[in-house]
Known about the structure:
With about 160 residues, the chain is mostly helical. It is built from five helices and two strands; from the N terminus they run ββααααα. The protein is about 60% helix and about 5% strand. A hairpin with a 2-residue loop joins β1 and β2. The N and C termini lie far apart (about 75 Å).
Amino acid sequence: MTVMETTGTRTDSCAAPPLARRRPEGQDSYTISEVVARTGLTAHTLRWYERIGLMSHIDRSHTGQRRYTNRDLDWLDLVGKLRLTGMPVADMVRYAELVRAGEHTYGERFALLEATRRDVRARIAELNDTLAVLDRKISFYADADRVRAYETEKAG
């Protein structure tokens, strides 16, 4: 999968910033078990991602073993972030197809990510409202405990 396009001086790596837990210096070939260990995904999930088109063709060794690259790991990091947004798998696959199709799909990619960002912001607002309710309840019970402790101390 071509997950990096360059136009002028701008580059779209289609991934989050490099991970702090970076790979060994100079290494750019990983077995499926190494990718499982690095990503927390299962081998089944990695093969499924490839089968549905979320991952492009993964190179193989001369013995037929999948060989993932740093670019593949960056892509998987982005997919993980997209999953956290709640983006449907079909939309993630569509995004992957758009990336593979090239620069002329920037507008569609922008629209897809913009819609996802709107959804995430709406969820954040809902979570903030929920957090405010929890904070009020916690404050109520903390105050109730203080009142009870005070009354117990005063009576005793």
